Amino acid sequence: MRSARFVIDNDVRVCYNFFMINRKAVFADETECFKTPYEPEAGDRVTLKLRTLANDVLKAYAVINGLKRVMTRLPQERGARFDFYTVSFTCTDKPVNYHFEIFDDDERVAYNRLGCVENVQSEFDFSFVPGFKVPEWAKGTVFYQIFTDRFCDGDPSNNVEDNEYYYTGGHSKRVMEWYKLPDELDVRCFYGGDLQGVKAKLDYLQDLGVEAIYFNPLFVSPSNHKYDTQDYDHIDPHIAVIEDDLDHRMKFWEHNNGYAPRYIKRVTSHKNLEKSNAYFAELVKEIHARGMRVVIDGVFNHCGSFNKWLDREGIYLNKEGYEEKGAYQDADSPYRNYFKFEKPNEAKSEYEGWWGFPTLPKLNYEKSAELEDYILSTGAKWVSEPYNVDGWRLDVAADLGHSQKYNHKFWRMFRDRVRGANPEAFIFAEHYGNPEPWFNGREWDSVMNYDAFMEPVTWFLTGMEKHSEGYDGSKLWDGKHFFDSMFKNMSKFPRPALDSALNQLSNHDHSRFLTRTNRTVGTIRTMGPHAAGYNVDVRVMALAVLIQMTWVGSPGIYYADEAGQVGWTDPDSRRTYPWGSENKELIEFHKSAIALRKKIHCLKKGSIKKLDAGNGFIIYGRFDADDIAAVVINCTDGEMNLSVPVWELGVPHGASMTRKFFCGEYDYNEDEVVGEVKFGRLFLTLPAKSGCVYHYENNPRK
Q: Which helix (H) or strand (E) holds 32?
C-alpha cells in the first residue's frame, strides 16, 4: 500500500484522500502534445500520451480498437508534478478508436473524451481516421460572415429595382432607407448591399482582425438570401456589375415574368455575367493580398424555380445563348431528369420541392449523371483560377440526394473533385445533430458548430433557445450543464474537425445573440421588430465573445454583431450593418478579443480542460507546449470569489500568472495584472457579469 499521496505536491494536498487516483491530474486529448502525428496517414507510427499525477498510478494501458496495450512511463525530473505514459503503434487505413485505463492498488479508472469515467462507452472514445486532413489555414481562423445585401451598398447602379420582377407573391422592392427594419415577408426586399460595398470595407475587416470571409450565396438568384440559385456559373450582377440594362417596371397586375424585360436583360446578358464574374475574381485577389481567405456558400441540395435548367418563369425561353429549353417548359428538355416531376411526360407538370416549396426544386442527382458532373465541376470551378476561393460552405448538406447512401457517395466525389482542383480548399457543412458519419476523411472537413458551441453558450448565458423561440431557466447559469453539453457534442468531432468548426453566436438563420440577452421569447410577428432591442445586456454579449475567442474552433462573427446589431430570428436577423451608428465600444472589444486570441498561442489549437463550474460561473484552461491560459466567467448579477486550480494546466508551484484581459461592468481593459499562484490555485474576485483571461508562458518565445 502506498504512502499518503497528498504530500507529493503541496499544491494538490487538499484535493484528494490517501487512496484515490487523482482524477483532476489525468489528461489526454488529440492535440499535438498528446497524439503525434496530429493528422496521421496510413502507415504512420502514431504515439499516444497520457498524463497522470506523479507517482499516482501503478499501471496504464491504452485500449486501441479493443486491444489493451501496456503504456511506458517516461522518465521525469525529480519533483515533477506529472507522470507521462506513452504507447506507439503503426496505423493502417482503418479508423482508430482508443481510450485509456489506469490502475493503482485499489481502483481502476478509464479515460476518454469525456474525461475520467467508471464505465467506458465506446461512442466517447478518442478516434481518428488515417488520412483525414483539414487545411491548416482553416484551424482556429477568425471568420466573418457577410450577408451581402445587408452589409454595404457600394454601387447603387446595380440595385434591384421596384417591380423589376415578380416572386413569392409580390414584386421586387428596392428599400431606399438603409436603416429600415426588415418586413416580416422580406425575401424580395433589397437594400442594395454588394461586392463593391465589401471592397470598400476591407480596411475595416482587416483592422478588426478578420482572417477569412464567409459569404452567403453570391450566384444569380431572385431572392435577397440567394439560397434559390438561378445560375451556378455566374455571380449575380445585382451585387456586382450591370452595364447591359434597360429601364422598365412591371405593372402591378403583371405577375408573369415574361413581362420582366429589365430583370431578364440583367441576368441573362453575357456582358453583365462575365463582368460580374471578373469583378468577383479581382475582389478575391485583393482579399488574398490582405492575408485573408474567402469561402462561398454552395446550395446543391436544391436550386430555384428561376433556375435556367427548370425555367418555370420562362426567363430563358428563346433568349440568345440559351437554346435549350428548361425542364418545366418542355418535357423533352435535356434538363428534364435534373428534377423529379409528378407527370414525367408532360410539360409544366409539378415537381418535387425541398420541404414542398415550389420555389426550391430539389435536384434529382440519382437520375442524372449530367447533373452530378455539372455540380461537381461547379465545386472545382470556383476554387480554381481565376476565382481561387478557399472553400465551400455546404447548405443543408445532409439532405442532398434521396438516400443516405447516395448522400455519402456524392460528398466523397465532391471532396475528390474540389481537393483535386485546390488541395487547400476547406469544406464545411450546415448540419444539426451528430456529424460523425461525414467525418470519415473523405467527405466534410467540419460543420457550422451549433450543438458544440452556439447552443451551449446561449443556454448558459441567456437561458434562450437559439431562435429566441424558447426559454429554459433551468439551463441559465448552469455551468455543469454547459460543460456536459459541450464535451458530449465535441466528442463527435475528430480533433482537426473540432479545431476548424465554425463557432458562431449568431447567423442568418437564428436570432442575433444580443437580442437573446433580453431573455424574451419572441419573433418579428409576435413581438414586433423594436422589441428585439429592448433590455439587451451588452455585458453578456461581451462574455459570449470572450468564450468564443478562447474556445476550441474557428470563431465566426456574423456581420454587424460586433457593431451591436439586434434582431429576432430570420428575416429580422438580416438587418443592415448600422454604418454611422455602430456601437464603437463593442467593435473595439471584438478587436481586442481577436488580438488576444492571436497573441496567446494555445488559444488557436491548444488543449482544453474544464477546471470548475457552478451556478453562474465556468472556468476552463487552454494549454500547449508554449502557453497556458485560464479563462474565468462570472455571468451572475453579483460578485464572486473564485479559486482557479491552475495546477491542472501545468502551472508550476510558486509561479505567477498575468491577467491579459478583463471585461465587466460595461467596460474592458487589457492592463496586465500579476496574480500569484498559491497551493496550485489562483484566487480571484470577479464583479458581476465579468470575465478574465490569465496567461503563463511555459516556454517563452523570443
A: none
- Please state, in angstroms and rounded to a whole number, the distance separating the CA atoms of residues 163 and 159: 12
Residue-wise pLDDT for 528-547, tens only, equals: 999 999 999 999 999 999 99
Cell of residue 315, nine digits: 426567363
**Of the candidates 620, 625, 672, which has an alpha carbon nearest to the alpha carbon of residue 646?**
620
For residue 235, the cross-strand partners are 219
Question: Of 573, 548, 571, whose CA–CA distance to 559 is shortest?
Answer: 573
Residues 155 and 239: their CA atoms lie apart, in Å, by: 9
Per the CB < 8 A criterion, the answer to whether 164 and 66 are in contact is no
526's enclosing H/E stretch is helix 524-527
Residues 495 and 133 sit within 8 Å (Cβ to Cβ): no
Position 462 pLDDT exceeds 70:
yes
Using CA atoms, how far residue 478 sits from 381, 470, 474, 512, 544, in Å, is 47, 17, 7, 22, 15
Whether residue 698 has pLDDT greater than 90: no
What is the DSSP-derived secondary structure letter of residue 646? G
For residue 527, count CB atoms less than 10 angstroms from its CB and return exposed for 0-12, middle for 13-18, buried for 19 or more.
middle
Tell me how far apart the alpha carbons of residues 5 and 329 are, in angstroms, rounded to a whole number. 81
Instruction: State the amino acid at position 509 in one-letter form.
Output: D
Does the pLDDT of residue 14 top 70, yes or no?
Answer: no
Decide if 458 contacts 503 (C-beta within 8 A): no
For every residue of 224-291, which 3-state class applies, written as one string? Answer: CCCCCCCEEEEECHHHCCCCCCCCCCCCCCCCCHHHCHHHHHHHHCHHHHHHHHHHHHHHHHHHHHCC
d(CA 654, CA 284): 51
